[in-house]
Amino acid sequence: MVRGKPNILITGTPGTGKTTFSSALAEATQLRHVNIGELVKEKNLHDGWDEEFDCHIINEDLVCDELENMMEAGGIIVDYHGCDFFPERWFDRVVVLQTDNCILYDRLSKRGYSGSKLSNNIECEIFQMLLEEAKESYQEDIVVAMKSDSIDDINKNVSDLTDWVASWCNNSAQSDNMRD
User: Fold this and answer.
1) Domains and CATH numbers, the chain
2) Which residues are annotated as a binding site for ATP?
């Protein structure tokens, strides 16, 4: 089965603007935005609470089971800070948002991050761990790093990906016509 609309994974260190960007992209493209953090809370797809990092311990198998049918249908924007547990077949584009460390530090501090949670996330960004994870988990030609320091960056990224979605849908429609 060929999807009529692409699936996009938006990933990056916490504080890089994944949810803001995903919401704006969903509005611009009419794709459905799924925030994995919210889904985990809403559907209880976790194995408890991590006191050190002050977050749920997600159950990756339950998350994938929950998403399977909608991902097969297509037209989904998945927003999450990790990416290596999602099946490769689900995504047509993987976007890794990246933010300058000084800006990221300020954003995370304003969220109340401190101690090891703050330093681990800053180190993750410095060493581009999520970009490496994405490149190891998916075909490199579908992985794109995008700067996410400002509203202007978000607007440019939304515009660029909206164009990509339109092109993908157009190419998909042409492929369908060639098969008919």
Assistant:
1) 8-173 (3.40.50.300)
2) 15, 17-20, 111
